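#lab-general

N.A. 3:47 PM
ok so I finally got the sequence cleaned up, no stray characters, all 461 residues accounted for. can someone with queue access submit it? mine expired

B.Y. 3:52 PM
send it over

N.A. 3:53 PM
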Amino acid sequence: MRIRQADRTVLSAVNLGEATLAESYNSLLTADPALASSTRDDLQGSQYRQQLIVADRLLCNVMRPRFLGAQRSDELARISRVIAGLMERAGGILLRRPDLLHAIGATEQEQEIWSVDPGYTGFTLTSRLDSFMLGGDPQFIEYNAESPAGIAFVDVLAEIFLSLPIMKRWGEERGATAFGARGALMDTLIWAYREWGGKHRPRVAIIDWEHVITRRDFELIAAFLRGHGIPTVITDPRNVEYRAGRVTVGGEPVDLIYRRVLLHELLEKAQEADGLLQAYRDGAVCMVNSPRSKLLHKKALLALLSDGRLDLGMTVEEAKIVEGSIPWTRIMTSGPTTYRDSTVDLERFVLQNQDRLALKPIDDYGGRGVVLGWDTDVEEWSRAVEWACGESYVVQERVPVAEGEFPVWDGGVRIVTLLVDTDPLMFRGEMGGVLTRTSSDALLNVSAGTGSSTATLITGV
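B.Y. 4:20 PM
back already:
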């Protein structure tokens, strides 16, 4: 397992413990063709039965889970807790600072709905920190604070892997366990509903557009909630009706909206989804995440943390974690800024250092609009920089990307080197799971068709 550095040099193993566990698992498969074949069949068959299909592909195309040692998992949880807490403090400052709201590209529509109190404390109750982790040191490149996908997927993939004969043989002495992200989500929804003022067991509606590719994730969450006695439906936001202070879907009452639709898409169709939006404004329904989560979702927030414009009153330890886990990020504009201990002209600096920089839209998802300087020719980069200066973009320094050795099926087992990310799933600021994606492409994103997901398991060794 090796790390590819921004300057294309190669460092030693990212984490010897994880690499050793992976090697021992891979060796079992390569040494036993019958076990390998049955593992492939069981893994694919289980995914088809569970309908774990995204963008017409099976969710997982590798034959082993990702292993996190318990100590390493605890360290990731600690760092993630600090960053998530700082993000919450940042949200409180942003909400009171029109100049900073302008800097992050907040629209008038967004600011209007952010003024509505959601009825509970916290800007984002369920979120995901996307990182590449070297040893125990994650580098957080994005904060998916608005509507993180994959919560049910990671649970179900873990269940599938733990049921495989190879895992029973391999994990017998290693104590491999799963996280249980759906349970953490359920507890979070119930907590929010109680804080909002709900007394009885909530009736939940999961809200997103009808044909999104992550719908199966919703279905698995709905089944989990129903299995715990919580009535749950999945519907398009335009199907929410609001009359006489009562919210219904298909004629049935709804108390809690689990919002998966992104705010900017919802506001673009505000007239069509007026019932949902007005019910929230009137406090007639509890919504998780609330529209305020979008404040923390915008990539410009990482730039404000990186450039020091936000005075969060950080402790020495918090400042150390920010310095070690948030890469250099700036809102893409013309003019001076700082890079390490120097003052530079930002546009000129970005043009001259494309091999270690990436451009990202402040307000988009799924890898759309991202331009990787190290994967782009000079003319294309120049055009991208000119475009970004006139739009809402950030520029971010490249971070080292972890690689792992994964078995895949190609007429037999073949071990391939893939890029690996580490994405803690956060619930009220605490890590309740980890999404791991693998890819041969620098842009790790399952929905964009450039990656796969695999289970993340905690091991005792």
